[in-house]
Fold this protein.
Amino acid sequence: MVRIKIKALSLLKDVIGKDHIDLEVPFGTTLKELINKLAHDYKGLAEIMEKIELIVLVNGEKKSLDYKLVDGDEIALMPPASGGL
């Protein structure tokens, strides 16, 4: 098993109900599989993902969806920034 930490930022904290999740996933789990699992476990998150593309960072860097998670990875989920002057 691989231990990871998921940080929910901005409005996603409210959807998930907390600002982070400590999770264990099987070895070889990809970032895409993790996102699908989260969308399944948190229906509000799935609804948001239907409307906007979330920014997903692994250890502060953008990774491809086929990236295989490793022990200690920290995944940040956030909506795209909006606003302006």
Summary: Residues 31-41 form the longest helix (11 residues). The beta strands are 2-8, 20-25, 55-58, 61-62, 74-78. The radius of gyration is 13 Å.
